[in-house]
Amino acid sequence: MKTEWLNRGVFVAFFVVAAAHMPAPVAAQESPVDYCSSCHSALDERLSAPVTAFATDIHSERGLTCVSCHGGDATAAGLAGMDPAKGFVGKPGAEGTPEFCGRCHSDAQFMRQYNPSIRVDQVAEYVTSVHGRRLAELGDTAVATCTSCHPAHSIRPPTDPLSSVNPLNVAETCGACHANTEYMAEYPIPTDQLERYRRSIHWEMMSVERDLSAPTCNDCHGNHGAAPPGISWVGNVCGQCHSVMTDNFSQSRHAQTFAMLGMPGCATCHQNHDIVRASDEMLGLGEGAVCARCHAAGDTGGEAATAMRSLIDSLGSSFEAADSILGLAEQAGMEVSEAQFELGRANNAAVQARASMHAFSVEAVREDVEEGLGITLEAHQRGQDALAELQFRRAGLAISVTIIVVLIVGLVLRIRQLEHKRRTT
Amino acid sequence: MADEVRTPGTSRRKFIDWMLSRTLTTWILSTSLGGLVLAVVYPTGRYLVPPASGESAATSVTLPFKPDDIPPNSAEIFKFGTRAGLLVRTASGELRAYSAVCTHLGCIVQYRDDIGHIWCACHNGHFDLNGQNIEGPPPTPLETYVVNVRGDQIVVSRRT
Q1: Is the pLDDT of residue A12 over 60?
Q2: Is 0.80 surpassed by the pTM of this model?
Q3: B51 and A331: CB-CB below 8 Å?
Q4: Is 60 exceeded by the pLDDT of residue A351?
Q5: Closest Cα in chain A to B52
Q6: DSSP string spanning A130-194?
Q7: Architecture of domain B60-157 in CATH?
Q8: Interchain CB distance below 8 Å, A341 and B84
Q9: What is residue A5's predicted lDDT score, i.e. its pLDDT?
Q10: Is A41 in CB contact (< 8 Å) with chain B?
Q11: Do residue A401 and residue B81 have CB atoms under 8 angstroms apart?
Q12: ipTM, two decimals
């Protein structure tokens, strides 16, 4: 452990020393002549592409130029402008990229002029990431550095939907390496994360529903400090959004048992990348029930799972029955909006019962379900009353219509009788 | 049907006879009976056949409480059609109304006077006083309504 921290300390010190010896960042400045662009535009595709791409780069928009990052002298043509004596540093390799970008991005005072609240801890985080550690400790230059995710010369802010790090595009950006089996062949980790993520409710919310607050890779793994969540703190990651379930789970016996067995908390039942929409079928011992992976009908856990499922199902079916009968009454023209309004509260109880289930306490679930059943049964009764009232009104209508028809028929017969009588006299 | 009664006498008598003629009586009776049948059967049929039900068409509601009933930094749930609404009087005294149905799984949200914004107890979702989802799993903002105060009446309407 001490060696690990020593390594990290040496690595950070390396960046600090390297940054101190690199040319100071240059803020936006007017340049009368720009030989960088004019010369590079005339060169082959590899050397001219940066000039073309830089037009849409956030750095260009903020007034930075080639010299701001690469140093040198844009007013001097040819190699004279690329003189190391004039601060020219050229293109950094993978190992030098973090400190190259960090010259500005780790400088709070410098960055404040562009965005007073921008973070300046990207490099500090990066050195703690799996990428950063492999780069520093193993010299592995195939790992992601700044430009792997923020393509040099065409960097857009994360809020730009065209940015590679916009929430809509993060999964594809990470997947460019992590889903590439050939590129990842050297690493003993799976490459199906992107494929599995695309089957998840999180992907559906993000990519189909366009809910940018839905989690993508960096929300669980971090971005600059990207690393897999540790087994013991998966719940803290999920709990960023699903706090009620996490709190319930952390107080349950499962939390301790899972930790003891080295099982990854929430992910034990919900998976990690392919987290599908949770359903009642996951509870109990039936088909698709995750409890059945460890529990059987004979054990206490299995009985508890079956009891909780039964309770939740009973509230669900009672809710549907009440909703259905109120729907029938409403369709038939009866005023049942008050009962429907009240029935909405039963949904709270059902949702809370499903949340309480994460404490794996039958009593907690029962409490919520009974509260809900009180509401659904009353709503159902009001629906039945409305339908009985409807039948009463229909019967009344039928009787009155019958009477009217009989009167009319009688009237007609009477008229004909009078007519007949008059003709015969 | 062509057996018109021809009776001699005054023109008035002729008119009465014509009125009582079988052709006319039959015509009147059949048409009025037809009209009566239509007038009775059609609305009765419409009553007996259920209309297609749609979403609550309520676009405006007068609340069953007065503006003075809601002190600053508090709220009341109200019925808007078949769904729940939430009327909040902010700490600064402004009345604002929202759909009280959480955009996550449809629980009824509530106003938290200790933190000054809207909260869903089911999954700890938070919404600010503009209805924006700011924390927890709710994916979208709450629908906001227009609040008009007319004397002692509070009228809440959907935005058009």
Answers
A1: no
A2: no
A3: yes
A4: yes
A5: A331
A6: HHHHIIIII--TTS--HHHHS-TT----TTSTTSTTSTTTHHHHHHHHHT-TTTTTTSSS-S-HH
A7: 3-layer Sandwich (2.102)
A8: yes
A9: 46
A10: no
A11: no
A12: 0.72
